[in-house]
C-alpha cells in the first residue's frame, strides 16, 4: 500500500486532535521557559591578561586578545543582556616599566568599553604604585575589588565588595562580589610601605558575613592558584563560586568542587573566557552551576572599536619614542657593523642569509603595525639589547631584521681585523633566545638550522 493512500484514510478529526496535542506541548514548553522557578544568570569571566592586548602572531593558533574578546562577549551577552554579568580577575601588568603601564591603561579602557566593569587585582598591577591603577579605574569607571589590600590613607581605595542585581522584581537576583590576592601571590607585591596587606581569609570573613544575607549568590575572585582557592573555600564555605588563577596555564574545563563551593579558572593571558551559567530554583537558591570554556581563537572576527584602540596604543608608543629612548649597556665583545659589512668576505654565507626569512624579519612588524613597538623589535632586529645595536628603523637601518650578528655576536672588530678577532661559534641556545616556547612552540635546532644553513 502507498503512503498517500494510507494518509487519505486517516479521519480528519484524528489529524486535528494530534495537532492540538502538539500545540499544547509546545505551549507548555514555552511556559516552562518563562517559569519563575527556573531562573538563570550568566557570568562571563576572563582574566590574567598579563598585559597582552593581542597575541603576537609569531606562530599560528595563538589565543586571546581584546579584539576577539569584544566580539565573543558581544555575541554572548546579547542573548540575555539583563542577566549577564561581566567579570575579570585582574592582571594587567606583567613587568615593571613605562610600556607595561601604558598597556594597563589600554587594557582597562578596553574592559570598560566591552562592559567589564568589575575587576580583581593581581600583585603585578601595583608595580607602578597602587595610586596609578586606582586613578585609571576611576577615569574608566571600573571598580577594582580587593578585600585584603588597601592603600593607607587613601579615600578612593580598592573596594572590598560590591553587589549587582540582575533582572527585574520579583525575578531579580542579587550577586555579591569580593576579591583577594591569595596567600601565595602576596609575596610578589614586594615591600610597599603604603599598603596594608591582610591574610585573605581574615579579610574576607567579616565582608562575607555582612554580604551573605543580602545576596542570592556569593562570588569571590581569588588571584592565586588552585591550592589557595581551595583553602579559602574550606575556610569560608559561604562562598558559592570562586574564579581563581594566577600564572597558571591551564584553565578548568568544568567547575571544581570544594565542599559546596565551585571553583573555576579561565587560565592565563586572557586566552579563554569562562561562560558560567547559574540556575536558581523557585526560592532563588542555587540549583546548579555549569561551565562552558570558550577559547579566543582566530574564528572570532576583529572588533572595530578594539582595533582602533590598538592603533591608538601603537601611536602612543611611537609618539613617546619608546624605541629610541632606551640606553642599553655595551656588549663585552664590541659593537655592531650590520650584515652588509660581512658580504665582501663571506659571499656565500651572505647569499644564503639573504634568502632566509631572517633577512627581512622586520618587514612583518611594519606590515602588522608594530614597527615602533619595543616588545616586538628585540627578536626581529639585530643587537636590540646592546649599545650600538638596533635602536630604531630610522636611526639604525643597517640593523633592521635578524642579521649575521644576531647569532654571531657584534662583529665590528672582526670586520676591521678578522684574524685578530675571530668570531665565536653559535650555540643552539642563541636560537632559543628568540625561538622560545611562545614564539616557536615546535622549534627543533637540527631541522631549523637545515633551513638557514650557510
Ligand atoms: C622572543 C622573540 C620574539 C618576540 C618578542 C616577537 N617575535 Fe615575532 N617571531 C619570533 C620568531 C622566532 C618567529 C618565527 C617563528 C617561526 O617561524 O617558527 C616570529 C614570527 C613572527 C611572525 C610570523 C612571520 C611570518 O612570516 O609568518 C609575526 C607576524 C610576528 N612574529 C609578529 C610579532 C609581533 C607583532 C611581535 C610583538 C607583539 C613579535 N612578533 C614579537 C620571535 C619573536
Ligand atoms: C675583511 C674580511 C672579513 C669580513 C668583513 C668579515 N669576515 Fe668573518 N672571517 C674572515 C676571515 C678571514 C675568517 C677566517 C678567520 C680564521 O680562520 O682565523 C673569518 C671567519 C669568520 C667566522 C668563523 C668561521 C670559522 O670557520 O670559524 C665567522 C662566523 C665569521 N667570520 C662571521 C663574520 C661576520 C658575521 C661578519 C660581519 C659582521 C664577518 N665575518 C666579516 C674575514 C672577514
Ligand atoms: C640565525 C643565526 C645565524 C645567522 C643570522 C647567521 N649565521 Fe652564520 N652561522 C650560524 C650557525 C648556527 C653556524 C654554524 C655553527 C657555527 O659554526 O657557529 C654558522 C656558521 C657561519 C660561518 C662558518 C661557516 C663554515 O663553513 O664553518 C660563517 C662564515 C658564517 N656563519 C657567517 C655568517 C654571515 C656572514 C651571516 C650574515 C650574512 C650569518 N652567518 C648569519 C648562525 C647564523
Ligand atoms: C634575534 C632573534 C632570532 C635568533 C637569534 C634566531 N632567529 Fe630564527 N627567526 C627569527 C624571526 C623573527 C623569524 C621570523 C622571520 C619572518 O618570518 O619574518 C625567524 C625565522 C626562522 C626560520 C624560518 C621559519 C619559517 O617558518 O620559515 C628558521 C628556519 C629559523 N628562524 C631558524 C633559526 C635558527 C636555527 C637559529 C639559531 C641558529 C635562529 N633561527 C636564531 C628570529 C631569530
Ligand atoms: Zn596573575
Task: Summarize this structure as a short list of keywords or feature phrases.
elongated, binds heme C, six-stranded mixed β-sheet, alpha/beta, 454 residues, Flavocytochrome C3, Chain A, domain 2, binds zinc ion, 16 helices, Purple Acid Phosphatase, chain A, domain 2
Can you walk through the features of this model?
With 454 residues, the protein is α/β, with parallel strands linked by helices. The chain folds into two domains: 36-311, Metallo-dependent phosphatases (Purple Acid Phosphatase, chain A, domain 2, 4-Layer Sandwich), CATH 3.60.21; 331-452, Flavocytochrome C3, Chain A (Flavocytochrome C3, Chain A, domain 2, Orthogonal Bundle), CATH 1.10.1130. 34% of the residues lie in helices and 17% in strands. It contains 16 helices and 14 strands. The chain has a six-stranded mixed sheet, covered by helices on one side. A six-stranded mixed sheet has the order 6-7-9-10-12-11, with helices on one face. The protein has a two-stranded antiparallel sheet with strand order 5-8. β1 (39-46), α3 and β2 form a beta-alpha-beta unit. α3 runs parallel beside α4 (98-114) and α4 (98-114) packs antiparallel against α8. The longest helix is centred in the N-terminal third of the chain and has 23 residues, at 12-34. It starts with a helix and ends with a helix. Mean pLDDT is 92; it is low at 1-8. It binds heme C (HEC) (4 copies) and zinc ion. The site of one heme C has 19 residues, from α11 and α12.
Amino acid at each position: 500500500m502507498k503512503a498517500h493512500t494510507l494518509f487519505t484514510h486517516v479521519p480528519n478529526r484524528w489529524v486535528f486532535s494530534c495537532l492540538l496535542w502538539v500545540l499544547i506541548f509546545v505551549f507548555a514548553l514555552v511556559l516552562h521557559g518563562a517559569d519563575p522557578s527556573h531562573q538563570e544568570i550568566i557570568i562571563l569571566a576572563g582574566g590574567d591578561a598579563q598585559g597582552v592586548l593581542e597575541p603576537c602572531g609569531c606562530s599560528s593558533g595563538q589565543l586571546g586578545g581584546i579584539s576577539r574578546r569584544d566580539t565573543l562577549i558581544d555575541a554572548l551577552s546579547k542573548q540575555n543582556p539583563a542577566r549577564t554579568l561581566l567579570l575579570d580577575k585582574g592582571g594587567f601588568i606583567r613587568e615593571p616599566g613605562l610600556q607595561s603601564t601604558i598597556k594597563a591603561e589600554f587594557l582597562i579602557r578596553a574592559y570598560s568599553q566591552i562592559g567589564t566593569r568589575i575587576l580583581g587585582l593581581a600583585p603585578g598591577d601595583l608595580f607602578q604604585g597602587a595610586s596609578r591603577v586606582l586613578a585609571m579605574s576611576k577615569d574608566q569607571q571600573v571598580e577594582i575589588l580587593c578585600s585584603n589590600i588597601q592603600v593607607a590613607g587613601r579615600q578612593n581605595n580598592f573596594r572590598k565588595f560590591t553587589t549587582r542585581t540582575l533582572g527585574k522584581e520579583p525575578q531579580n537576583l542579587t550577586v555579591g562580589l569580593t576579591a583577594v590576592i591569595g596567600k601565595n601571590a602576596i609575596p610578589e607585591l614586594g615591600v610597599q610601605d603604603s599598603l596594608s596587606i591582610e591574610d585573605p581569609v581574615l579579610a574576607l570573613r567579616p565582608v562575607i558575613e555582612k554580604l551573605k544575607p543580602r545576596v542570592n549568590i556569593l562570588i569571590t575572585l581569588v588571584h592565586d592558584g588552585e591550592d589557595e582557592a581551595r583553602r579559602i573555600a574550606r575556610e569560608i564555605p559561604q562562598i558559592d563560586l570562586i574564579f581563581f588563577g594566577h600564572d597558571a596555564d591551564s584553565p578548568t574545563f568544568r567547575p571544581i568542587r570544594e565542599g559546596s563551593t565551585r571553583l573555576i579558572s579561565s587560565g592565563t593571558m586572557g586566552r579563554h573566557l569562562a561562560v558560567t551559567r547559574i540556575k536558581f530554583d523557585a526560592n532563588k537558591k542555587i540549583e546548579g552551576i555549569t561551565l562552558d570554556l570558550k577559547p579566543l581563537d582566530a574564528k572570532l572576527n576583529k572588533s572595530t572599536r578594539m582595533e582602533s584602540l590598538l592603533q591608538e596604543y601603537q601611536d602612543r608608543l611611537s609618539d613617546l619614542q619608546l624605541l629610541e629612548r632606551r640606553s642599553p649597556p655595551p656588549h663585552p665583545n664590541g659593537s655592531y657593523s650590520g650584515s652588509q659589512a660581512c658580504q665582501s668576505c663571506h659571499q656565500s654565507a651572505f647569499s644564503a642569509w639573504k634568502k632566509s626569512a631572517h633577512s627581512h624579519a622586520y618587514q612583518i612588524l611594519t606590515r602588522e603595525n608594530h614597527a615602533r613597538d619595543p616588545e616586538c623589535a628585540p627578536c626581529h632586529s639585530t643587537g636590540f639589547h646592546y649599545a650600538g645595536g638596533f635602536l630604531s628603523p630610522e636611526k639604525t637601518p643597517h640593523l633592521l631584521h635578524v642579521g649575521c650578528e644576531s647569532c654571531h655576536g657584534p662583529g665590528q672588530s672582526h670586520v676591521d681585523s678578522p684574524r685578530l678577532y675571530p668570531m665565536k661559534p653559535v650555540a643552539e641556545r642563541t636560537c632559543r633566545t628568540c625561538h622560545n616556547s611562545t614564539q616557536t612552540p615546535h622549534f627543533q635546532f637540527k631541522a631549523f638550522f637545515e633551513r638557514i644553513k650557510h
